[in-house]
Amino acid sequence: MADAAERIIHEIDIEEEMRESFMTFAMSVIVARALPDVRDGLKPAQRRILYAMHELNLGPGSRYIKCAGIVGETMKKFHPHGELVIYPTLARMAQDWNLRYPLVDPHGNFGSIDGDPPAAMRYTEARLHALGAQMMVDIDKNTVDFVQNYDQSANEPTVLPGAFPNLLCNGGSGIAVGMATNIPPHNLTEVVDACCLLIDNSEATLEEIMKVIPGPDFPTGALILGANAIKEAYRTGRGSIIMQARATIEPLEREKQAIIVTEIPYNVNKAQLVEQIAQLATSKKLPEIVGLRDESDRKGMRIVVELKRDSNPHVVLNNLYKHTRLRTSFPMNVVALVEGVPRTLGMVDLLTHFLAHRRQVVTRRSQYELEKAKARAHILEGYRIALKFLDEVIAIIRAAANPQAAREQLMKRFKLTEIQATAILELLLRQLTSLEQKKIDDEYKEIIKRIAFLEDLLADVRKIMKAVKEELLQIKQKYGDERRTRIRLEELEELSTEDLIAEEDMVVTATRDGYIKRMPVDTYRAQGRGGKGIIALTAREEDEVAHLFITSTHHYVLFFTNRGRVYRLRAHEIPSASRQARGSAIINLIQIQSGEKITATLAVREFAADRYVFMATSRGTVKKTSLESLHTRIKGGLIAINLDEGDELSWVEITDGKDEIVLATSQGMSIRFPEEQVRPMGRQAAGVRGIRLRKGDHVVGMAAAREDAKLLVATELGYGKRTALSEYRSQSRGGIGIKTLNITAKNSSLVGMAVVEPEDQLLIITTGGQIIRQHIDAIRETGRSAQGVRLIRLDEGDHVASITVAAKADEDSDKES
Fold first, then answer.
1. Top-level CATH class of 357-479?
2. Residue 692 to residues 459, 649, 699, 784, Cα–Cα distance (Å)
3. What is the CA angle 372-364-147, rounded to 5?
4. What are phi and psi of 81, to 5 degrees?
5. Which fold has domain 246-325?
6. Which of 74, 138, 258, 718 is the most exposed place for a label (fewest CB within 10 A)?
7. 542 CB contacts (<8 Å, ≥6 apart)?
């Protein structure tokens, strides 16, 4: 009962206790585990492993010993946290795909860039790498502070002298509590040059330093895209750097091509990368890939991505950049311990702190060497006195009863210190020869010079920094190498959809009932004039083909409706389909209004400000408006022209403002007039009269005239002809025009018109879904009033629906389907 009465209970606020305990834990993680020191760039575990290897005399010239012995020594003396922490840390310092300059020299299986783990530590061996040994240079000369280890049985350094800037050269990563660090590696040669620049000019700017260090230098090489992100990260200590694999395109047998990857971004697992590419191929997201091999060996990396014949390797490569880690980012977050406190540092800060550390190391080393030199000079001075009075010294020693008496007599007779007298008593007889006496004199003269040099060095900070610079240059000369990572200064542009899609010419067809599809232009082989053609689609019941045009997958397609509205779509967004398929409902692609029908289409690559869209209605009204004004992402479309009741927008053409326009009607009339007679108008304007129509007539075609070109017309029953445009005189707009075709029962009315060159090719599609492709020069050239020749042989009840022209630039060869 007495003991219970004497107990004292302290009341503690649990919130305060939790806060203090967590902060203690957090600071322990930050300082003693996760973050590197700005001076030597090492975390405690790394530093202790290297120092343990130094203690074991595992220098670059020593024999390798089992990693189990290194781990055991480290755990026994300095880091009692188990081999599951120590061995992976040791192994990483030996992996040349993780460290730009490995600190440990490995012997055995230490893992691979494919993510393979190191062999068990009982099998692997290691010793210090030459640069790892450089981290310990002069550590025995009082250059750094030592503290007692965890059980006070030994001393360990708080930081290593670090003869080279390890933090910048090898980088580092770590996750603490509430903060993390991720520092990229750099090139040793460049970092040393930057240090020298800062030594010579302490006011050097980041821009001047970046002329020496343009960016990180990763051990796996590859590319860095863009310089602005690097500059921002170097300035603030935070930023994201885009890395990209180094890939080339090589030809293979049978006209195939392959993408060859020889370098991958830093911290990317090669085996996982190959698996990512394989998944894209097997899932048909990249059906162009038909083979994948990893041919990497000891000579270097080589991943071969074999492609189908006729596939576009640049498009496939862009898709790989987008969907795999062939292109990735390095989130730079430079956090390091400065005097035990975590700080975010820029490039100038990192260099400055390292140079301050080296200045302190050189200063402490010089002070240590000065003290040692003075102590040696003091002893040598005693030797010189003894040698000068050698006989008397010998007599004093012989007469003395014991060493203590001899020491006291020598000190009294020659005014020596105890240290000097003791050193004289320890002299060997062979050191009393004339040769040895000369050596002592020479050594004394040299040590005096050394003392003078060290005193002069310590008296001038500039000379200390000069020594720092000279030592860094020696490191550079011995261990510096060429940059591995190439930097592309131009900024990375986001991959557009077009970058991921091969550019190829496509035939687009649209039916009267609103179905649309696209097919490769070489789906249709070129045939002779008057052929029957091949099936282009299987129409639904009584549906008919209304439009056919050729465009590129990288173009925009403008859809103009009978009500004068315009809608925009990318050509590649139109679903592809087979020749016989009817296609997809256009209402699923653009939000056309009820009762609207597509009456005209236009394919454009860009919406240039100096280009115009020239429009014509079925009743002969024309209008000119800027192409730029029709550039819209509004799904509901824009008003392109205001129409009179009963009129419909039917034809559009891109012009440069100085063209001549040709209109043709179903009754075989045509008119040619200068475009300049129609002034540019706003989108909602109604337009002006282009041609005066006879009763029952309507416009069936419009085109911009070209010098020396021909005017091609086609009729409902499959007849057509070419006529020189020079036969069509220029008139004023609004007239009735002149005859362009003799309409008869044999050929029926006009359904289409185009301006053509001899090298062009004509595509004709019928209401029944037949399509034919033929050379323009196979169509006879006749006068304006002729009735034409047969272009396509039609089935009973079938009619020509539309014609379009493929220019020579689009047609390099005639390929069989």
1. mainly alpha
2. 103, 16, 10, 19
3. 100
4. -115, 15
5. Gyrase A; domain 2 (3.30.1360)
6. 138
7. none
- The length of the chain is 817
d(CA 101, CA 129) in angstroms, rounded, equals 9
Alpha-carbon gap, residue 602 to 568, rounded angstroms: 10
Q: How far is Cα 78 from Cα 44, in angstroms, rounded to an integer?
A: 9
Smallest CA-to-CA distance from 69 within 127, 155, 117 is with 127
Start-to-end CA distance of the chain, whole Å, equals 106
Q: Cα-flanking dihedrals φ and ψ of residue 699, to 5°?
A: -75, 135
Domain span(s) for CATH 2.120.10.90 in the chain: 503-808
Q: Which ranges of 426-460 would DSSP assign to H, the alpha helix?
A: 434-458
Is 123 in the active site? yes
Position 178 confidence tier, pLDDT thresholds 50, 70, 90: confident
Q: How confident is the model at residue 593 (pLDDT cuts 50, 70, 90)?
A: confident
Cα 817 from Cα 535, distance rounded (Å): 12
Percent of the chain that is helix, strand, coil (3-state, to 5): 35, 25, 40
Q: Is 249 helix (H, G, I), strand (E, B) or coil?
A: strand
- CA 693 to mean position of chain CA atoms: 61
Give 276's DSSP letter.
H
CATH number of the structural domain 503-808: 2.120.10.90
pLDDT in tens, 208-258: 999 999 999 999 999 999 888 999 999 999 999 999 999 999 988 887 899
Distance CA(514)–CA(512), nearest Å, equals: 6
Distance CA 321, CA 242 (A): 11
d(Cα 123, Cα 780) in Å, to the nearest integer? 86
- SS3 of 211, please? coil
Give Cα separations from 252 to 255, 306, 369, 502 (angstroms): 6, 8, 66, 20
On whether the CB atoms of residues 765 and 716 are closer than 8 A, the answer is no
User: What dotted CATH number matches 35-163?
Assistant: 3.90.199.10
Can you give the pLDDT at residue 511? 73
524 in Cβ contact with 534 (< 8 Å): yes
Q: Is 230 helix (H, G, I), strand (E, B) or coil?
A: helix
